[in-house]
Amino acid sequence: MGKILRVNLTAKSLNVEKTSEDVARKYLGGKGYAVYLIYRYLREYEKAGTSPKDIDALGPKNVLIFATGPGTGVPGFPSSGRYHVMALRSPLTGSIGSANSGGEFGPFLKFSGFDMIVVEGASETPVYLAIVDGEAELRDASSLWGKNVFDTCRMLMDKVGGKNTSVACIGPAGENLAYMACIMNDDHRAAGRTGLGAVMGSKKLKAIVVSGDEKVPVAERERFSEVSKRCLDAMKNNPVTGVGLPTYGTAILINIINTAGGLPYKNWQTGVNPDAEKISGETLAETYLISRRSCWGCPIGCGRVTSVKSGPFQVLASEGPEYESIWALGSSTAVKDLDAVVKANHYCDEFGLDPISMGSTIAAAMELNEKGCIPTEDLQGLDLRFGNSAALVEAVWRTAYKAGFGKYLALGSKKLCEIYGHPELSMSVKGLEMPAYDPRAIKGIGLNYATANRGGCHVTGYTVSPEVLGIPEKIDPIKAEGKAKWVKIFQDFTCVVNSTVNCLFTTFALGAKDYAELLSAVTGWKLTEDEILKIGERIYNLERVIINKYGFDGKDDTLPKRLLEEPMPEGPAKGQVTELEEMKGEYYKLRGWVNGVPTKEKLAELEIEL
Predict the structure, then answer these.
(1) Phi/psi class of residue 539: alpha, beta or left (left: φ > 0; alpha: ψ in -120 to 50)?
(2) Whole-model pTM?
(3) If we measure between CA atoms, which residue out of 203, 159, 160, 166 comes closest to residue 181?
(4) Using an 8 Å Cβ cutoff, are 464 and 445 in contact?
């Protein structure tokens, strides 16, 4: 759209800048462009005498960036209804803040006339940002402060009205600065990871509402139509994007990963859940499913509209839970009551909490409690036993409001476990809780967790695809050999997808060549497969330069002790540990890094100017 909106909440100023085509050529948009801007901010702070390590994630010097990419909002660009959010620093990890969401907000931001929103400073009183038909305005949000996500979205949708209207906002968790707070949009969609809802709350920015009907330009319309049709046909005929995800959603993975022996159970004590069938995608579809829901422009429709008709965990209408939510709130906590998991997930959406970090932190608290590490008076009546459905649901709302033991849960598992003297029980990397794949059974994903720039993240480089699903080819999940190459390729390609910005699920059916052709037709640039992978590598390396500034290096590219030293007790991976150092050495060579730091030669090769 050619425009970036820069908002300074301290000065209450709004300025429009041109999107730089030079920057876009090097970093695409979305995540890549945001990473570039974050680096520029850090350099300016350094010049002014402020070390990046001294930037408070919840202070006014942090910057929050909402970014779309060249694919976002283009009709026919497969699954292009997403946006990326980044911050200089995450309150949960102290590293770079990074999250991604679907729904309609990303495309409608572009339809309102802007590619990106850059939010600086902090307001003294609650405000929301309205962008309607290219005009932006900061408005009083005092009447919205304290409202949950659903009420905030409804009230702003009613107030603004208009065509192509969407709301991104925080709930009570963000207002109360819970470290795992999300930015929610369209009721149930979440920019979920690294606590960016808390960053938004610290700025007293309750919401952003966008509305408009501008069209996204396409440089080569006829060529794009041809490439788009081929790619959409490939997705329709793919067994994952054409059948599995539309039929069962992401929760289809519960039984698949459990069968592989990699579904973490009871805070990662094992990778086999004896009750997996009770919380599976098949059970969700048979018992709770009302309908499917798609993000804007998506042919897959993996979203689940669900309902718990009666009982103590009644939810008349909700969305999800997805695979990661079911695992974190169910398998990791040993809760086998799917009613309770649906309710806990609904609360995460209503209050604005990341279910991965939330469930993982509750599971860590359950193990701490099981070992007698938490004084009874700290729990204030919360019966944190593995498998306790009522305690799971109660713990979620306590976290959102920092009520009772919730003030400890709101810090995330790393700080929680440090407080109670057992940091090794936090199943996190760089402070970010790992998702639902045990790397003792799936070795490549362990290397990815360890080297992911934002912390324990599966979607930085989803090697589960070849290791378990056999896409694009099947490789042995419990062998460490050769995994470094796969991890690097997946990480670089994922940066391209998150900068385009569209859905990672497209990569089950589409490869780098498809993306090069789609992007070439949309932008008019002549991009090859090798060129876009180089762009992805450039983004990944600049992001690594940023986290190096915060003090993260090779010592932090590691995994919890349990996964390195405690052999898997059962299942197909019985006796396995993660051979991280072996894989990491090979990975650093491929990356051109020394102890987790890019060499000057590598940065020069990628044309990264420091």
Answers:
(1) alpha
(2) 0.97
(3) 203
(4) yes
CA separation (Å) from 23 to 40, 70, 229? 12, 13, 29
DSSP 265: B
DSSP 353-399: B-HHHHHHHHHHHHHHHHTT-S-HHHHTT----TT-HHHHHHHHHHH
Alpha-helical (H) ranges within 161-252 are 172-175, 196-202, 221-236, 245-248
pLDDT reported for residue 356: 98
Render 584-601 in DSSP notation, one character per residue. HHHHHHHHTEETTEE-HH
DSSP 8-state code for residue 58: T
* Cβ-contact 203, 183 below 8 angstroms: no
d(CA 519, CA 528): 10
CA pair distance 272, 82, nearest whole angstrom: 33
**CB neighbour burial string for 280-297, b if at least 16 within 10 angstroms, e if fewer:** bbebbbeebbeeebbbbb
Quick: pLDDT tens for 509-556: 999 999 999 999 999 999 999 999 999 999 999 999 999 999 999 999
Domains of the chain from N-terminus onward: 3-211 (3.60.9.10), 249-426 (1.10.569.10), 433-605 (1.10.599.10)
One-letter amino acid for residue 146 of the chain:
G
Non-local CB neighbours of 376 within 8 Å, separated by 6+ positions: none
Q: Please state whether beta strands 127-132 and 205-211 pair in parallel, antiparallel, or not at all (unpaired).
A: parallel
Identify whether the C-beta of residue 502 lies closer than 8 Å to the C-beta of residue 78. yes
Neighbouring residues of 48: CB distance < 8 A, sequence distance ≥ 6: none
Q: For residue 308, which phi and psi values (nearest 5 degrees)? A: -110, 110
Q: 501 in helix, strand or coil?
A: coil
Tokens representing 110 are 């572009």
Give the integer Cα–Cα distance in Å for 152 and 145. 9
610 has pLDDT over 90: no
Question: What is the three-class DSSP state of 529?
Answer: helix
